[in-house]
């Protein structure tokens, strides 16, 4: 079944999307009209990178790089925690004291989806703002998003787990679901933007690795949650998830802040160099002005002597 779906996706991409075979199209154009092919933007880059089949594990290899692995783990845990919350939700809402019907339980998923729709563009804007302030350090684009998710996701999971454990009012459950959606939607635009900036020639493979990893992590955590929540209770289980999220986002924050400090030092060094250059240029201009005034004095003195 998986192979069948993969074939249904790959064949249209290979046949109908020119981006997947731009090298071949450019080669054909070069044979017909070399001058027109030379005028194509990025023609040299396309010719220098002929299509090569990548092994299926190539995206996973990218995710294992030291500048990516920690932040990929953050994304996987955030997404997996969200999936755990929404899969456990109907089991508890169908039981007393909620006793909700299937239709009403379906409506209870709206807060998380609404949060994602609202917050995802804002998360992208925050990431772009950080990237603009530190253009030489792609990792710094995660700084705001990582902090938001690192604070909000553990707090939301704690609230959700213990509210469900204590069977409190449904409104509190929906608020916690909304907060979980906000925490996840704050981070995902940033991680994909970071991968695009860091791995420009392999951004699609890196994004595919994160996507596959998120769903694999979700499957694993759902299997664990079904047994752990029954054995431990919702409160302790989601407390454990909150701790894992706090640990990974905290470790990621340390790496991000180191890169931000390095970027700030680079900016300060560049500013000092510009000031020094401006001061040197000012000194040279002052020296030239003094030389010109001295020359004029000499000429005026010589003129007076002749007179």
Automatic annotation (TrEMBL):
Region (Disordered): 278-307
Molecular function GO labels: transmembrane transporter activity
Membrane topology, record value: Multi-pass membrane protein
Protein name: Major facilitator superfamily (MFS) profile domain-containing protein
Transmembrane parts of this sequence: 68-94, 100-122, 143-163, 169-195, 202-225, 237-257
Signal peptide coordinates: 1-22
Organism: Tetradesmus obliquus (Green alga)
Any single Gene Ontology cellular-component annotation: plasma membrane
Keywords for this protein: Membrane, Signal, Transmembrane, Transmembrane helix, Transport
């Amino acid at each position: 079944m998986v192979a069948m779906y993969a074939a249904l996706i790959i064949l249209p991409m290979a046949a109908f999307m020119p981006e997947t075979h731009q090298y071949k199209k450019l080669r054909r154009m070069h044979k017909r009209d070399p001058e027109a092919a030379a005028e194509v933007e990025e023609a040299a880059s396309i010719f220098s990178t002929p299509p090569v089949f990548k092994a299926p594990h190539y995206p996973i290899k990218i995710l294992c790089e030291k500048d990516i692995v920690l932040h990929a783990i953050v994304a996987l845990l955030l997404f997996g925690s969200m999936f755990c919350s929404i899969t456990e939700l109907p089991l508890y809402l169908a039981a007393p004291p909620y006793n909700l019907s299937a239709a009403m339980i379906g409506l209870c998923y709206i807060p998380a989806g609404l949060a994602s729709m609202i917050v995802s563009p804002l998360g992208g804007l925050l990431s772009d703002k950080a990237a603009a302030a530190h253009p030489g350090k792609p990792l710094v684009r995660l700084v705001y998003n990582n902090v938001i998710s690192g604070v909000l996701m553990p707090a939301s999971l704690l609230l959700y787990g213990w509210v469900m454990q204590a069977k409190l009012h449904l409104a509190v459950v929906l608020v916690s679901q909304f907060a979980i959606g906000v925490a996840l939607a704050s981070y995902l635009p940033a991680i994909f933007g970071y991968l695009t900036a860091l791995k420009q020639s392999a951004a699609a493979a890196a994004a595919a690795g994160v996507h596959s990893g998120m769903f694999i992590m979700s499957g694993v955590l759902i299997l664990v949650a079904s047994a752990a929540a029954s054995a431990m209770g919702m409160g302790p289980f989601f407390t454990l998830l909150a701790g894992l999220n706090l640990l990974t986002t905290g470790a990621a924050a340390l790496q991000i802040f180191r890169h931000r400090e390095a970027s700030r030092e680079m900016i300060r060094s560049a500013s000092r160099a510009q000031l020094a250059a401006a001061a040197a240029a000012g000194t040279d201009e002052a020296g030239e002005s003094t030389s010109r005034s001295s020359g004029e004095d000499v000429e005026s003195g010589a003129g007076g002597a002749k007179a």
